[in-house]
């Protein structure tokens, strides 16, 4: 099999060859047809996340090199182990990549995506920037019939992340409307899932006017520019005294400072983005505001199925996609890092 692999942190990906694996037990071998290029691949390539104040979160872990990134995977079944039932050869699936150890309490309760010994495809085990990928069990193969093949894999990352965050926001909307901060790919997904799941008004904020306009076109009630000094007051007014939940799809010190400020008493700020930075709030403000601040990381296998049902029901607008060959994977990561990518790039090995 051909791969584009990480050979060292901070270095470009390189073409590598490996024997195509034969699936054993419950394993399924997918022939990768599409693998989305994701911003988190850049952090994994760098080997760290920025924690603000010059601090870095080391994410190098124990990956054996060469290591193949790529977690937004879709492809067709090429072979299946003797215990892998119900996966016809040639059928197209998206792979749920956030796979856990299958043995711990988190995995037992269905939160494999939070497992501390993950086997996440393209994160901790070899992923989809390759002609083939091994999936440990058919339960991680998602039926994506009716969904455009080029976005099926990306839905397992940006779609699931948006859905998982909005689902956490819903119980707090008794306290006021929803505020979405950051209208990149994940934020736009979140907006659309929110539209499908609540009748409450949805306020949005982004520094980019084109993104604000796009969000209004997708049903946002009002849009605000965080760079505008009057935005906080305007959100207070538009929300009738505060929002029930603010979802921060940027995840920076600035964005969280902006997002949590208009949260009404009893409401929540939900951090999704991984941009980086630090956050401080006087401790008494938590009880005085009955404030919840929580994080949301991708989503569970069950949430992936719920999310796909919404997509199949036509609740998500088509996403423009540019496809590129496997050999351009490393260049695509460079383009993403440099902000040269508008929309989504999907590798077609
Ligand atoms: Zn991703
Ligand atoms: Zn586990």
Radius of gyration based on Cα positions: 20 Å
Q: How many strand elements?
A: 17
Low-confidence stretches: none
Specify the structural class. Answer: alpha/beta
Distance from N terminus to C terminus (CA atoms, Å) equals 10 Å
Main beta-sheet strand count, sense and barrel state:
7 strands, mixed
Residues in helix, %: 25-40%
Order of helices and strands: EEEHEEEEHEEHEHEHEHEHEHEHEHE
Bound molecules: zinc ion
Strand content bin:
15-25%
How would you state the average pLDDT, rounded?
95
Shape: globular
Count of helices? Answer: 10
What does this structure look like?
This protein is of the alpha/beta class and 349 residues long. The chain contains 10 helices and 17 strands. Strands 3, 6, 7, 8, 9, 16 and 17 form a 7-stranded mixed beta sheet that branches. Strands 12-11-10-13-14-15 form a 6-stranded parallel beta sheet, sandwiched between helices. The relative contact order is 0.16. The model has no long low-confidence stretch (mean pLDDT 95). It binds zinc ion (ZN) (2 copies). One zinc ion (ZN) binds next to α2.
């Amino acid at each position: 099999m051909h791969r584009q692999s990480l050979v060292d942190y901070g270095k470009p990906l390189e073409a590598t060859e490996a024997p195509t694996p034969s699936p054993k037990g419950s394993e399924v071998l997918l022939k990768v047809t599409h693998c989305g290029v994701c911003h988190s691949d850049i952090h994994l390539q760098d080997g760290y996340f920025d924690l603000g104040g010059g601090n870095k979160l080391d994410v190098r872990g124990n990956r054996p090199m060469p290591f193949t990134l790529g977690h937004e995977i879709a492809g067709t079944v090429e072979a299946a182990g003797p215990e892998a039932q119900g996966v016809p050869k040639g059928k197209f699936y998206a792979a749920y990549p956030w796979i856990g150890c299958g043995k711990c309490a988190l995995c037992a309760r269905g939160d494999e995506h939070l497992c501390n010994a993950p086997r996440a495809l393209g994160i901790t085990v070899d992923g989809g920037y390759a002609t083939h990928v091994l999936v440990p069990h058919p339960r991680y193969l998602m039926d994506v019939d009716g969904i455009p093949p080029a976005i099926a894999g990306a839905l397992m990352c940006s779609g699931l992340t948006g859905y998982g965050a909005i689902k956490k926001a819903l119980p707090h909307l008794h306290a006021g409307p929803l505020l979405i901060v950051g209208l990149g790919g994940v934020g736009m997904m979140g907006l659309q899932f929110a539209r499908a799941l609540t009748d409450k008004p949805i306020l949005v904020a982004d520094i980019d006017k084109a993104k604000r306009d796009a969000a209004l076109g997708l049903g946002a009630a009002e849009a605000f520019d965080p760079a505008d000094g009057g935005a906080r007051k305007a959100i207070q007014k538009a929300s009738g005294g505060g929002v029930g939940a603010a979802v921060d799809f940027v995840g920076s010190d600035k964005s969280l400072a902006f997002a949590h400020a208009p949260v009404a008493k009893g409401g929540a700020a939900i951090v999704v983005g991984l941009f980086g930075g630090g956050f401080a709030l006087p401790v008494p403000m938590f009880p005085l505001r009955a404030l919840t601040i929580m994080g949301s990381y991708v989503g569970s296998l069950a949430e992936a199925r719920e999310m796909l049902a919404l997509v199949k029901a036509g609740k998500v607008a088509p996403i423009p996609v540019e496809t590129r060959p496997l050999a351009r994977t490393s260049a695509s990561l460079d383009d993403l890092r440099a902000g040269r990518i508008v929309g989504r790039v999907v590798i077609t090995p």
